[in-house]
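Standup notes, structure subgroup. Blocker cleared on the coenzyme A input:
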Amino acid sequence: MKKDLILIGGGGHCKSCIDVIEKQGEFRIIGIVDKKEKNETIFGYKIIGIDDDLPSLVKTVKNFIITIGHIKTASTRKRIFIKLKELKAELPHIISPLAYVSRHASIGEGSIILHHALINAGASIGCNCIINSKALIEHDAKVGDHCHISTSAVVNGEAIIEAGCFLGSNATIRETKKICKETIIGAGAVIVKNIVESGVYFGNPAKRMRFE
Ligand SMILES: CC(C)(COP(=O)(O)OP(=O)(O)OC[C@H]1O[C@@H](n2cnc3c(N)ncnc32)[C@H](O)[C@@H]1OP(=O)(O)O)[C@@H](O)C(=O)NCCC(=O)NCCS
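Run returned:
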């Protein structure tokens, strides 16, 4: 029998998540928490409340997944994750059946692995992460909590992405390099050195944005 699941966040990223959840088939989507008008629907799933309703919703449904997008800052996703943990909700990780996750890799709670992502042997993904469509996390790479690795980004072997980072589409992180927490890496950036100061970086080789 399918397990009941509530989604939090009804924007564009939510649509991609719905597709993964439907294709995966383990969960029945009960509804979506969002500021939008109650009873509005997204692909047929109703908006059932706002953040303030979470304490009552956890009494009826156990499983939640955060489907709010993350560009630039993870703060909203992080705040809701902490709130759900306090409320003792369960945050399963969800893996698209079209993704490949090595049996020697680990995925933290509340993380979602979208279609055609590849997570190779020895890699680890923290909690509440988005590993977006076609992203590649190579062997032994580590992605910290609350990160978004966007579409087609490449995190090469043994690289370390600390908590709260955003990697734009097609960004490439050279093997073994480390990105410090809460860093924003622009689309298409190529990181060839460790990033030791949080900020916004883009280009090839990536440089820090002067006016953030
Ligand atoms: C790096 C980024 C976060 C900066 O966003 P921002 O602060 O809003 O910056 P702006 O878009 O105003 O751009 C500022 C300048 O940097 C340049 N720039 C921005 N992002 C760039 C990038 N990734 N590569 C090269 N140049 C870039 C812009 O052309 C602009 O240059 P200008 O001042 O000469 O006109 C953003 O551009 C980006 O790359 N976002 C990722 C998008 C993405 O991958 N989404 C995936 C969702 S799954």
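Discussed briefly. The chain has two domains: 3-86, 94-200.
Next: hand off to the docking folks.
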